[in-house]
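Input record, target 12 of the design panel.
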């Protein structure tokens, strides 16, 4: 059953092309009221993530009163690993190189505000304004959540739910043989979050790698749309498609982060199971692996579930919704 009023959400993000599309999707979804957006290091360093966020907000009309903050600049204990090879050096598919017919930049640089809130300040203020009514959607490493659990646990425990894009439960990883990128970048943060008795929902590669498009399909979507969002989507994904074609070999762009946003838009798109999930922090070949207890045992003989995990997705309905929102 749909809630009558929009779900208030904070996006915590490291844009990243699929993050960028997830932000645009959230802002284009009437089911959501985006009250805050915060950045974290991940696909790009946090300063670049913040630049990318303001660049995106400059392309669309952000909701009035939207709170924006910058979060953690480095993982809790590891050196930062970024993903420039997938997302481009700027994180947005080298947008500076996209020119108009006249030869001018199609996406001009934006100026950042001289004073920027911290991610923690934004979360505190959102929870103060809307107690027990805010859903946090994390699209990057869980560093900001782990920091908040240490310095301001009361705020984190007031979130109605926390939707986490991350992990690979029964499928291969994407940054290492068995590890998904967000978990790999800051496994210590993920461990802290998974242990914190939060109302977690994990949206892992098991479902997000089933929601992908070819370059031709996305261009068809954009060509049939008069909305500038369609052109933005094709411009930003060029580098990611190259990586998918040359390195991964399948040529598909996966909507990892947008699927996590759609979990808040329409929960019926995903089938979820309560599971206990742990993350490996220190293994030489297993850093960042997420392991769910899926043994055939009676409940009392297994680890108690600490989250709900998306295990299946309605692919056709999900792609249809993505097309309608991103290329209307």
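The sequence produced for target 12 reads:
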């Amino acid at each position: 059953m749909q809630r009558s009023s929009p779900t208030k959400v904070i996006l915590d993000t490291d844009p990243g092309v699929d993050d960028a599309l997830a932000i645009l999707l959230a802002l284009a979804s009437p089911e959501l009221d985006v009250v805050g957006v915060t950045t974290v290091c991940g696909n790009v360093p946090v300063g670049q993530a913040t630049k990318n966020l303001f660049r995106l907000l400059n392309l669309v009309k952000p909701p009035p009163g939207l709170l924006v903050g910058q979060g953690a600049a480095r993982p809790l204990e590891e050196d930062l690993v970024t993903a420039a090879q997938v997302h481009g050096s700027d994180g947005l598919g080298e947008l500076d190189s996209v020119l108009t017919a006249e030869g001018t930049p199609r996406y001009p640089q934006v100026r950042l505000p001289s004073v920027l809130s911290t991610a923690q300040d934004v979360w505190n203020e959102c929870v103060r304004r809307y107690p027990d009514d805010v859903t946090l959607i994390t699209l990057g490493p869980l560093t900001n959540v782990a920091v908040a659990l240490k310095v301001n646990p009361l705020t984190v425990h007031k979130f109605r739910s926390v939707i986490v894009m991350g992990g690979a439960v029964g499928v291969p990883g994407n940054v290492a043989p068995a590890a998904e990128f967000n978990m790999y970048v800051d496994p210590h943060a993920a461990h802290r979050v998974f242990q914190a008795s939060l109302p977690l929902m994990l949206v892992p590669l098991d479902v997000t790698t089933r929601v992908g498009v070819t370059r031709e399909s996305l261009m068809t979507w954009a060509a049939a749309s008069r909305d500038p969002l369609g052109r933005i989507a094709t411009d930003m994904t060029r580098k990611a498609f190259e990586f998918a074609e040359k390195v991964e070999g399948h040529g598909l762009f996966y909507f990892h982060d947008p699927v996590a946003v759609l979990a808040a838009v329409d929960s019926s798109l995903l089938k979820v199971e309560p599971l206990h999930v742990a993350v490996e922090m220190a293994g030489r070949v297993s850093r960042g692996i997420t392991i769910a207890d899926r043994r055939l045992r009676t409940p009392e003989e297994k680890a108690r579930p600490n989250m709900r995990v998306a295990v299946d997705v309605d692919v056709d309905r999900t792609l249809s919704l993505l097309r309608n929102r991103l290329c209307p």
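The mean pLDDT is 95.
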